[in-house]
Amino acid sequence: MHYNYKYRLDPPEHLTETLLHHVDTCRQLYNHVLYKLNEADEIPARYEVQDTLPTLKEWWGDLTDIHSKVLQMVVKRVYDNLSALKSQKENGRAVGMLRWKPPREYRSLTYNQSGFKLKNTSGRPVLWLSKIGEIPIQLHRDIPENATIKQVTIKQEPTGEWFATFGIDVDEDTPEKPENPERVVGIDVGILKYAHDTDGTAVGSLDLSDERERLERAQRDLSRKEHGSANWEKQRQVVAERHAELKRKRRDFLHKLSNYYATEYDLVAVEDLDAKGLVELPGNSRNRAGAAWGTFLRMLEYKCEREGTHFVAVDPKDTTKECASCGTETDKPLWVREHSCPSCGFEADRDANAAWNILSRGLEDVGVGYSEPTSPEIFDFWCANESRSDSLTPVETALPVGTTPVPAKGVLEAGSPCLKERAATPRVSRQG
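-> structure tokens emitted (432 positions)
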């Protein structure tokens, strides 16, 4: 399996200058390659462009300072960005052309396969980089002995800190996913409640209001400084640190929450959300962006793969409108937080109803159940083998009667003790 391990670097001043020189040279090469591709009548293959690098070094002396694999990865970066742009166009998104990279938008370089080595010099771990030297590194966790380091990316964050991200392959078999998952859950994500699942757990959204206030105050102070002055640069770094603080707390919350669902269940069903498209919608865009649903789903997906858990992303259309009991669709304004079906009389929390619809579709996708509410297999799941004629609703049987609220703070403090306590209670599993 492939993992990314990130570590802090502590380069001395002279190596910091060398790193900055290498990063900026890579940025200039990126812009040069992009310029040549824009001039070409037909875009050549990536390897054809890479083959021109030795000739390019003859008149561009700075390129000789950079390891050859690093230069090749710059070319690959251009082509990867072009491929991503093409994919977005094919999906109907209005996108323009790739732009040149200014210094503030190009902060990293990548060694692939060769040109790097982890060493232990005088009892202190260092990262050796070809044509740069040995940089002290903070190995806060060990790299597995059965791991192979494929590449390392060196990046300077806006705060000025340097980090090394190792891409490693671990020689281990991916756990097999269960053919008949018993512990299953559907998750509906939102803003008021970050996650509402079919086990009746409602996880509150992370409160970052204090952090945002500090960030806004720092930004106001920055706006009063003379652009480019020493005081402006000092305050710019403060703003960057505030941004980093927000990012760290949000990612910590998302890591712990996604890890809980990936480890506690055999199947996790979620909505296949277009997170970027949702952010671009008018109104409440700041809260949608801050929710970072896309990041959460990506974390959940790779962790489910790691744990041998089914991850199912279902069509989100009408999951809120559709009744989890009978399938009747009912329009609900956003301010209506309860689901009340005019057809069968089923009542539930709006998000709980959506979570059950998500789970139903997820079960169908993996062949465990069917999305149709009249399906006997789904009713066996919902009603614990009771027939429809017994008039037992999901609330009376499989659906939790109440909702267990879990504050986001509980997730942050100790890897969600409240969630684990909830997970220890008996769950409804698929019968048969």
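The chain is about 40% helix and 20% strand.
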